[in-house]
Design brief:
The protein is built from eight helices and 21 strands. The longest helix has 12 residues, at 69-80. Strand 20 (291-296) and strand 21 form a beta hairpin. The protein is of the alpha+beta class. The strands form four sheets. Strands 1, 2, 3, 4, 5, 6, 7, 8, 11, 13, 15 and 19 form a twelve-stranded mixed beta sheet that branches. A five-stranded mixed beta sheet has the order 9-21-20-16-17, with no helix packed on it. 41% of the residues are buried.
C-alpha cells in the first residue's frame, strides 16, 4: 500500500486529499472520492456519503492514522472496488508532503564516521528534533537559509509511526511502524558547526527545510534491511548506499525514541544519513538552482530545487563574557 497527499480544488479552494498511489499505472486514487462513490452505489445518500467519506479519509495522514486499523481496512475496501487505471494521472497532481507530522526527529544511525564519532555514539542511538512546520514535499523549493555558506542534502529513510506507543523494545517496535518514505534532511553546514559548539543541538543549521515524499509505503511491501539508496544532483549521481548498513536497527531506533515518552501516529523519524549520502562527505556543495533527487528502491523518488539565499536581515550583537571570579 502506498499512501500520498495531493492538493485538489474544492468548493472553498484547494484542499489536501489522501490518495492511493499506483506507480504501475502512473495514477493515484482520491480515497475520499472513491469511498463516496462506493457508498452512494451501496445506497447511501450523496450528502451522507460525502460526510462519511470525509471522516474516514481526511486530508491529514496523521488524523487518518489516529483512527487505528479502521484506516487501512477502509483503504482495503476502496481498493477492492476501484480501478487504478481510471485514477488521476500522477504527472498532473500537485503533490504535498505525504505526512503532516506532529513530531519530527532525526537519528544518526548509519555506519558512517566511526573513526571520529564520540564514545556516546556507540552507546546509544543519538537523535535531535526538527521543526515540523518547515516540512516540504515533492517539487517544492528548498529554502537557502540566511547566513548559510554550505547547503547540503542528506540521503535518509523516513519512518512513519502508525499507532501510539511508549517504552517499546526491539521485539515489539515493528508493530508501531506504519511505513517509510524518502527523507532529505537538508543542512546548513557552516551554521550547524557553529551552533553545535553551544552543545544544545542544531537549530538554524537544520530548521529551514526538511523534505519528505513522494508517498508512504507500508512495511509489508519492503525489506527494510536491503534498500538501495541514491542521490542525484542535476542528473549526476553523487551518492549511493544501502539501508542494510545501519549500525542501530530500525527496531532499536524506535525503542530508544519511545523510552519514557510517547510516539504518536503520524510522527516521522529519520534514520540519519547513509554512508556517503551527503555532499559534505564528498567535498561537494549545492548551489542555488540545483535539482536534488533522492531515490530509495521501492519507496519512490523525491526531487527538490534549491532556492536563492535568504538575506541576513538581523544579526545578534555578541554579549560580553562575565569576568572570572
Amino acid at each position: 500500500m502506498k499512501i500520498g497527499r495531493v492538493l485538489r480544488d474544492g468548493v472553498d479552494g484547494p484542499v489536501p486529499r489522501l490518495v492511493s498511489v499506483h506507480p504501475e499505472t502512473r495514477t493515484v486514487l482520491d480515497l475520499a472520492a472513491e469511498e463516496r462513490r462506493r457508498l452512494v452505489e451501496a445506497g447511501a445518500s450523496a450528502r451522507r456519503a460525502a460526510r462519511l467519506a470525509a471522516a474516514q479519509f481526511p486530508g491529514s495522514l496523521t488524523e487518518a492514522l489516529e483512527t487505528g486499523p479502521a484506516f487501512t481496512e477502509a483503504v482495503g475496501r476502496v481498493l477492492a472496488d476501484a480501478d487504478p487505471a481510471v485514477g488521476l494521472p500522477m504527472a498532473q497532481v500537485h503533490w504535498l508532503p505525504p505526512v503532516d507530522p506532529p513530531v519530527l526527529r532525526d537519528f544518526n544511525a548509519f555506519k558512517n564516521h566511526e573513526a571520529t564519532a564520540p564514545d556516546v555514539w556507540f552507546e546509544v542511538p543519538l537523535f535531535f528534533k526538527i521543526n515540523p512546520s518547515t516540512l516540504v514535499g515533492p517539487g517544492d523549493e528548498v529554502v537557502w537559509p540566511a547566513g548559510c555558506e554550505h547547503l547540503d542534502y542528506e540521503l535518509e529513510l523516513g519512518l512513519v509511526i502508525g499507532r501510539p506507543a511508549r517504552d517499546l523494545t526491539p521485539g515489539t517496535a515493528r508493530g508501531a511502524l506504519f511505513g517509510v518514505t524518502v527523507f532529505n534532511d537538508f543542512s546548513a553546514r557552516n551554521l550547524l558547526r557553529y551552533e553545535m559548539e553551544g552543545r544544545l543541538g542544531p537549530a538554524k543549521g537544520k530548521d529551514f527545510s526538511t523534505a519528505v515524499g513522494p508517498w508512504v509505503v507500508t512495511t509489508d511491501e519492503l525489506d527494510l534491511t536491503d534498500l538501495t539508496m541514491t542521490a542525484h544532483v542535476n542528473g549526476e549521481e553523487w551518492s549511493r548506499g544501502n539501508s542494510g548498513s545501519l549500525v542501530w536497527s530500525i527496531e532499536e531506533i524506535l525503542s530508544y525514541a519511545s523510552r519514557s515518552e510517547p510516539l504518536v501516529p503520524g510522527e516521522v523519524i529519520g534514520t540519519g544519513t547513509v554512508a556517503g549520502g551527503s555532499g559534505w562527505e564528498l567535498g561537494r556543495k549545492l548551489q542555488p538552482g540545483d535539482t536534488v533527487r533522492l531515490e530509495i528502491a521501492g519507496a519512490g523518488w523525491l526531487e527538490n530545487t534549491v532556492g536563492k539565499p535568504d538575506p541576513v536581515r538581523w544579526r545578534p550583537t555578541p554579549r560580553k563574557k562575565a569576568a572570572a571570579g
